Amino acid sequence: MNKLELFLITYNRKDKCKKTLETILADNSPLKDLPLTVLDNASTDGSSEVIETFAKKFANVTHIRHPKNIGGNANITRAYEMATAPYVWVVCDDDEYDWTNWQELEFALKNNPPAVVVANYNAPEKGIQYLFKQLSFVPAGIYRTDLLTADILMNMYFNISNMFPQLAVAAAAINTGEKLPILQKPLVTMKLNPGNDSYVRGATKVNQVHPLLKNMFWAKGYLSSIPMLQSPAYRQKCSFFANAENENFYNFCGRYLANGKGFFYTYSEGIHLSCGWGKFAFALLSPFAYCCSFFKDKKGLNIRLFGHIKTRIWKFKNN
What we know:
- Helices cover about 40% and strands about 15% of the residues.
- The protein has helices at about 15-25, 45-55, 70-80, 100-110, 130-135, 150-160, 165-175, 210-215, 220-225, 230-240, 250-260, 265-275, 275-290, and strands at about 5-10, 35-40, 60-65, 85-90, 95, 115, 140-145, 190, 290-295, 300-305, 310-315.
- The longest helix has 15 residues, at about 275-290.
- The radius of gyration is 20 Å and the shape is globular.
- It starts with a strand and ends with a strand.
């Protein structure tokens, strides 16, 4: 496994960062001897001191503390830019890891694939629309670093404003046309989703953040990332699947309009960002979905009115 290097991105999560470092560097961890660079985004909560303790104890750990917080997405991009080994895995400080299926990863890497999918909570084996969404989760993919050309890095920096710089690398891997191995049991599982505020996390004066950045939301950023896929068929499939809560496309249309700052502006923007037949489907369905849509959760059947108002209309009986 000397072909793999790790980058851990972190900011002001001292306890979570410590737990992650302990997991990666534990005696039973297959990662314990791999090069590990911690990109510390100018933490102020004591995280830097914790990281420095590990760096002094483990020769393979490098601590880089940025002079100023450059934003979470820029920190992700910086990690990929710095990668030098044949493969790179960028991990976060707030997830959980399980090494029991590590040998499957070693076997997969022997075939030199563009990427290996190591988190499968969204069933990426079902199709490209599941796979691309899965890879929006930063640690979900281990990538071959020869994908990181100047063009792809430029795409990453551009896509910082769309919430998902890592999808530029995912798109590059998918665009090779090679099959991406998907581990049967994930090595990493998402435990914390910071949501749309990940943009402004660390900003000292939120009112100075660009309005387009503050008004960004998951679905808009995801739709804006889909055009990096070269296949028109893939772009269309992903457009229809662009939802954040495993709901159907109809519900997604309604929630998309609800996130915007103006109905008509958000409506036209959604049509513009959708691909293929997704444009017509969004144009037709979104006004109705905004006014009224149904969805299920673990407790029952719900109705959403005007994009925001949610009411349970049928409660499932507990078994």
